[in-house]
Design a protein that fits this description.
Blueprint lengths: L3 E4 L2 E9 L6 E6 L2 E5 L8 H14 L6 E5 L5 E7 L3 H8 L2
Length: 95
């Protein structure tokens, strides 16, 4: 299963969030998803907020262009990156 799919308004990325990490950032792929390390604990939406900021920084887009499609309360999430192609996602992730 591919971790990214092309949509008319951007790319949908499968993300496996890893909270309570020593640093934030994209850390390769794992089982059909991109692993994103997050420093925050998953409490009161803080981890999701940091996830959005981390992805926005990594892909050079605004935080408002990073939208949850599903999985807001799960470690595995589907996230729409508006205005980004699947090829650009693969480039940033390192594929």
């Amino acid at each position: 299963m591919d971790y990214v799919s092309e949509m008319p308004d951007g790319a949908v990325l499968n993300v496996r969030a890893q909270p309570r990490s020593s640093r934030s950032g994209i850390d390769g792929t794992i089982g059909g998803a991109v692993r994103v390390r997050i420093r925050c604990a998953p409490v009161d939406g803080k981890a999701n907020k940091e996830l959005i900021e981390t992805l926005a920084d990594a892909f050079g887009i605004s935080k408002s262009s990073v939208l949850f499609k599903s999985g807001e309360t799960s470690k595995t999430k589907r996230i729409l990156l508006r205005g980004i192609s699947a090829a650009r996602v693969r480039e940033v992730v390192g594929e």
